[in-house]
Design brief:
With 91 residues, the protein is mainly alpha-helical. The protein has one domain (10-81). The protein is built from 4 helices and no strands. It has helices at residues 10-13, 16-34, 37-50, 57-83. The longest helix is centred in the last third of the chain and has 27 residues, at 57-83. It starts with 9 loop residues before the first helix and ends in an 8-residue tail after the last helix. Residues 16-69 form the Complex 1 LYR protein domain. This is Complex 1 LYR protein domain-containing protein. It holds the Pfam family Complex1_LYR.
Length: 91
């Protein structure tokens, strides 16, 4: 299965620290809009800390793909709100 990270810039997708920082930025943005910044940021931090000692390359790739999927979904959601146009198919 191809990696979802190809939808993100390589400098972000290939670097876990940069991916973490971007996830935190998005969490702060979402939290400010929903008035629960601390809760959303803590959720992101907990997920990264929970897996910080993972050594299995396949598991690491899956975790990075999951984080990338979350970022992509949020970017699409915000784009749809701004343009009023649907980018994803709904079932």
């Amino acid at each position: 299965m191809p990696s979802l990270q190809t939808a993100l810039p390589p400098e972000l997708a290939n670097n876990v620290i940069r991916l973490y920082r971007e996830c935190l930025r998005r969490a702060k943005f979402i939290g400010q809009r929903q008035y629960n910044t601390e809760l959303v940021v803590d959720m992101v931090r907990q997920q990264f800390k929970k897996h910080m000692h993972e050594t299995d390359p396949e598991k690491i790739q899956k975790l990075k793909d999951d984080a990338a999927r979350g970022l992509i979904n949020h970017i699409l959601y915000e784009s749809e709100k701004m343009t009023g146009r649907k980018f994803s198919k709904s079932s």
